Amino acid sequence: MKIGFYPGCSLKGTSSEYAQSTLALAKAFDIDLVEITDWNCCGATAAHNLNHELATALPARVLALAEKDGLKEIVVPCAACYNRLSVTQHELNENQDLKNRVEEILEMPLSGNLEILNVMQFIDRYIAGKIEGKVVKPFNHKVVCYYGCLLVRPHDVLKFDRLEDPQSMDILMKKIGADSMDWGYKTECCGAGFSVSRTDIVGKLSGKIVKDAYDRGAQAIIVACPMCQSNLDMRRPHINSYLKTKIDIPAMYITQAIGLAVGVSREDLGLKKLFVAPTFA
Questions:
Q1: Is the peptide bond before 109 cis (omega within 30 degrees of 0)?
Q2: Taking the domain 2-119, which CATH number applies?
Q3: What is residue 203's predicted lDDT score, i.e. its pLDDT?
Q4: What does pLDDT average to in each consecutive run of 10 residues of the chain (281 residues)?
Q5: Any idea where the domains of the chain sit in the sequence?
Q6: What pLDDT does residue 237 have?
Q7: H or E stretch including 269?
Q8: In this predicted structure, what is the pLDDT of residue 228?
Q9: Can you give the pLDDT at residue 280?
Q10: What is 82-120 written as a DSSP string?
Q11: d(CA 260, CA 81)
Q12: How far apart (Å, rounded) are the C-alpha atoms in residues 87 and 119?
């Protein structure tokens, strides 16, 4: 089975373990994720603050290339990329003048019919029904699932999960034996793009998330966004400085957690690349 795959910039760089674990998990279930030919940056968190036309053309080109490759659906693991591609397709389908202008810029047509799946939608559609039968090492740990800002917003466009209390990641974690606990920080901001320019803000915001997970007895924070994972993991020194204590709860991708449960190796899941690696796996 072949499905389109858009890694985006993060999964080719700082969050390569997310791409690695996503591809390894797909392989474990005999799914071939095919990278979109000649893809480009979607604009992520910056472009739409500077130039609307550019911010639309960047993700639109990715969509056009996917259509050119003959793909009907694509998996977009990065929450920011998923947001930008989904919102752009919605805007183009709602605004014919803008669509005409973008097609003129790109010199490529856009049908607007591509199905864009985040990692949970992909797992739910193609893997979830087979997970329990393939679990060889139940993930019997207490976890909290962190969705972040972008994965479920804007809700009117994405129409994915519940806005304030999403459940999709929790449901998947329970399928592999985890005790996915309820908590109040599911969609709170981790500091996002301030990771470089204002690490003090990231330390404070991410610190509150990590501290609440720790106070609830969680053994891992499960994420599905490279920016969130980076802030909760790489910025742990700033978090510990803000909290004035050291907390070693790992922030793992959901693909890594499920991969462990179905027998994918730590190496293939990229676990050694985490700054705070799980000691229980």
A1: no
A2: 1.20.1050.140
A3: 94
A4: 92 96 97 97 79 92 98 96 95 96 97 96 96 95 95 88 93 97 95 84 96 97 96 95 96 98 97 92 69
A5: 2-119, 130-273
A6: 94
A7: helix 266-269
A8: 96
A9: 80
A10: HHHHHHHHHHHHH-HHHHHHHHHHHTS---S--EEE-HH
A11: 25
A12: 17
Q: Which CATH architecture has domain 130-273?
A: 3-Layer(aba) Sandwich (3.40)
Residue 35, C-beta contacts closer than 8 angstroms, at least 6 positions apart: 5, 6, 7
- Cβ proximity of 31 and 126 under 8 Å: yes
Phi, psi of 5 (to 5 degrees): -135, 120
Instruction: Give me 110's structure tokens.
Output: 């856009």
Phi, psi at 74, each rounded to 5°: -135, 145
Q: What is the phi/psi pair of residue 75, to 5°? A: -95, 130
pLDDT at 45: 72
97 Rama class: left (phi>0) / alpha (psi -120 to 50) / beta? alpha
Q: Which strands, in side-by-side order, build the sheet including 251-253?
A: 179-180, 142-145, 220-223, 251-253
Instruction: Write down the pLDDT at residue 44.
Output: 82
Cβ-contact 161, 145 below 8 angstroms? no
- Closest by Cα among 123, 93, 97, 125 to 111: 93
Q: What is the pLDDT of residue 138?
A: 96
Residue 189: its pLDDT value, please?
A: 93
Residue 245 DSSP symbol: S
